[in-house]
């Protein structure tokens, strides 16, 4: 018997409520998620805790497609959640959809 993981698409914000290059923390159940609008207009969502010292990534600095943790400057790829070398670790990423100017995250 195949088990399919159930995922839900959850509306979290209107696109106008998200400032470019500034993170926003959203909560979906027990999940704390950092939401970003990049200078390219892309919307990204990742787990809001750095794997190093649990720094709030929504308060980090965005550069291109990366977020820098506000505590110790760890560089994390917003596409795949991987911490860049020489540091090591990963955070969860979430698929994002924009529907009628509302941002939805698949959890």
Could you write a compact summary of the structure shown?
This protein is mainly beta. 0% of the residues lie in helices and 40% in strands.
Question: What does this molecule look like?
Answer:
The chain is an all-beta fold and 107 residues long. The protein has a single domain (16-106), classed as Rieske Iron-sulfur Protein, CATH 2.102.10.10. It is built from no helices and ten strands. It has strands spanning 9-14, 24-28, 31-37, 43-47, 61-63, 66-68, 75-77, 93-94, 96-99, 102-106. The strands form three sheets. A four-stranded antiparallel β-sheet has the order 2-3-4-8, with no helix packed on it. Strands 1-10-9 form a three-stranded antiparallel β-sheet, with no helix packed on it. The protein has a three-stranded antiparallel β-sheet with strand order 5-6-7, with no helix packed on it. A hairpin with a 2-residue loop joins strand 5 (61-63) and strand 6. The chain is globular.
Set out the fold topology.
Blueprint: E1 9-14, E2 24-28, E3 31-37, E4 43-47, E5 61-63, E6 66-68, E7 75-77, E8 93-94, E9 96-99, E10 102-106
Antiparallel strand pairs: 1-10, 2-3, 3-4, 4-8, 5-6, 6-7, 9-10
Mean pLDDT score: 92
CATH superfamily: Rieske [2Fe-2S] iron-sulphur domain
Main sheet: strand order: 2-3-4-8
Tell me the number of strands.
10
Give start-end ranges of low-pLDDT stretches. 1-5
Annotation field: number of helices: 0
Q: Largest sheet, if any?
A: 4 strands, antiparallel
SSE class: mainly beta
CATH topology: Rieske Iron-sulfur Protein
Q: Which series of helices and strands comes N to C?
A: EEEEEEEEEE
CATH class: Mainly Beta
- CATH architecture annotation: 3-layer Sandwich
Please compute the radius of gyration using only Cα atoms. Answer: 14 Å
Strand content: 35-45%
Count of discrete structural domains = 1
Task: Sum up the overall morphology in one term.
Answer: globular
Provide the helix percentage. Answer: under 10%
């Amino acid at each position: 018997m195949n088990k399919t993981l159930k995922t839900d698409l959850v509306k979290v914000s209107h696109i106008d409520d998200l400032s470019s290059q500034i993170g926003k923390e959203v909560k979906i159940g027990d999940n704390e998620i950092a939401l970003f609008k990049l200078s390219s207009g892309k919307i990204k969502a990742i787990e809001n805790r750095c794997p190093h010292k649990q720094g709030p990534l929504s308060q980090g600095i965005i550069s291109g497609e990366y977020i820098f943790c506000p505590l110790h400057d760890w560089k994390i790829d917003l596409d795949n959640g991987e911490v860049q070398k020489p540091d090591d670790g990963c955070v969860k990423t979430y698929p994002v959809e924009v529907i009628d100017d509302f941002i939805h995250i698949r959890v």
